[in-house]
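#onboarding

Welcome to the new folks! Below is a worked example of what a typical request in this channel looks like: someone posts a single protein sequence, and someone else replies with the predicted structure as tokens. Don't worry about understanding the tokens yet, we'll cover that in week two.

Example request:
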Amino acid sequence: MVCEVQYGGRITDDLDREMFITYGEYWLSDNIFNPGFKFSPIAGNMELNMYCIPQEAEHLKIVEYIQDLPKQDSPLVFGLHPNADLTYRLQESQ
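Example response:
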């Protein structure tokens, strides 16, 4: 529902829609509840290893976790090459 209904109407490119559905199938599955699940499991990269569901149940701990997330996501988080950000910024500036 999230991929097809909520966002599907806002995505106009077929390849973008296909990619979004693929992300949804991976990220919105029962696997996310397994201990140690990471949305972007790249070994050795602390910035990317922080993208996981916090195991703490306390509200304050979850708020702290959210506040500690980077302000800008790396393309690696989405499985993209680092040059994707450069390409995006060049196109946006033009």
